Amino acid sequence: MAKQPMLKFVTVGRDMPEKRDASLRAKDYDEIYAEFAAQKAEEQASRCSQCGVPYCQSHCPLHNNIPDWLRLTATGRLEEAYAISQATNTFPEICGRICPQDRLCEGNCVIEQSGHGTVTIGAVEKYITDTAWENGWVKAQKPEVEREESIGIIGAGPGGLAAADMLRREGFQVTVYDRYDRAGGLLTYGIPGFKLEKDVVMRRCQQLEEMGVEFVLNCTVGEDLSFDAIRGKHDAVLIATGVYKTRDLTGPNATASGIVRAIDYLTVNNKVSNFGDEVAEYESGELNAKGKKVVVVGGGDTAMDCVRTAIRQGATSVKCLYRRDRANMPGSQREVKNAEEEGVEFVWLSNPVGFATTEEGAVAQAMVQKMRLGQPDASGRRAPEVIEGSDYAEDADLVIKALGFEPEDLPKLWDTDGLEVTRWGTIRAEFGSGRTSLDGVYAVGDIVRGASLVVWAIRDGRDCAAAMIADLKGQGAIAAE
């Protein structure tokens, strides 16, 4: 009788790849987790219970066939594991690195509920695809038949690139327009290298070029090229711009020098630390935390990226102010722990209400109110309330706004009539297909659903691509299941 390769969670404990020491990793931008060795990956994959109703799969936005590729990994059949992994996910090695598995697949693992510790799904997913790249199993898929129809995609982030991949495989002529000088969107410039090393993103962009996708970079739609011109050039257009408008701080001196946007701060640092670019705002110290007391305002993953970047830039102190407590913050608890290990101080239940400045007009202090949690608000979360008389001053040479992102007013920016938006300013698009109010125009990702996860943008891009393929082939409204 063959030996049972799975269900080893009873005898084998959960084990993550080794994490580099905080004192060492805080000095560079390399990823903090080591790679699984083959034996360890097989061991951890073998812990899967192969349950009849795989909650890990149903709670994954892409519905990745996780139990099957875990079983294949456990039995050493890695090339087959990669084939199954990439069948539902355009960028599995990226999701393995940056998805909040604790809130998605791993957070819903059946053996976790029984007290045995979840399967390390994300680490195994990363290992499978990294191994596939090393062995040459990841190949640029050229279409069997070229088609005449042309598609323009505005935005080279995860949603746009996922759609570009599927559309190009079907033979459509695909052009991707992006405002930045490199493709990848927030994968390239919004997420620090210690979470996602940039060669991982660049090789996917290069693969798309090898497949025949054309990239038009340094192109801001509405300035360098009109939206109408793009529509006139292509048979269909996909809007995948993401959301980049920063929510602002309020109160006295909220626009003082030294108070900066998280997206600007992270973009400049990624250019310098990961690509070796020379950026004036970094050299001048405007977007450089070296030698400064840094205060980051916010509690999401962007705030975590900012505080950990400030540590690496050489800040003298880094504090994160968040108006709720640790249990109610939206960011990953894993990222909070990593940040604390690296020297970040979290000041829970605190909210800046204004700023004091130097004689030159630069920020010097954040004026902070202490908060407590009251009754739940309309969202169901306990609303923060001010504790009267609790105000105090927090010294700060650099304040980074990481309060979340809102959609830009695209109809106005692009001088476009008829592109309907919701009351939140996101583009109104049909669920599943991404069809908008304009004929032949589709939209996906954060510009439709609001600021969200990379994995949801990939899902939206794939679903929309399926609908576009069906529409352009004249097969009606068919969206991916």
UniProtKB/TrEMBL annotation:
**Gene3D superfamilies associated with the record:** Alpha-helical ferredoxin, FAD/NAD(P)-binding domain
Cited Pfam families:
Fer4_20, Pyr_redox_2
All copies of the FAD/NAD(P)-binding domain together span 152-461
Q: Where is the Dihydroprymidine dehydrogenase domain?
A: 25-136
Cite the GO molecular-function annotations of the record: 4 iron, 4 sulfur cluster binding; metal ion binding; oxidoreductase activity
**Domain of life the protein comes from:** Bacteria
What are the alphabetically sorted keywords of the record? 4Fe-4S, Iron, Iron-sulfur, Metal-binding, Oxidoreductase
Q: Which PANTHER family match?
A: GLUTAMATE SYNTHASE [NADPH] SMALL CHAIN, GLUTAMATE SYNTHASE [NADPH] SMALL CHAIN-RELATED
What is the protein's given name?
A: NAD(P)-binding protein
Q: Which organism is it from?
A: Pseudooceanicola albus
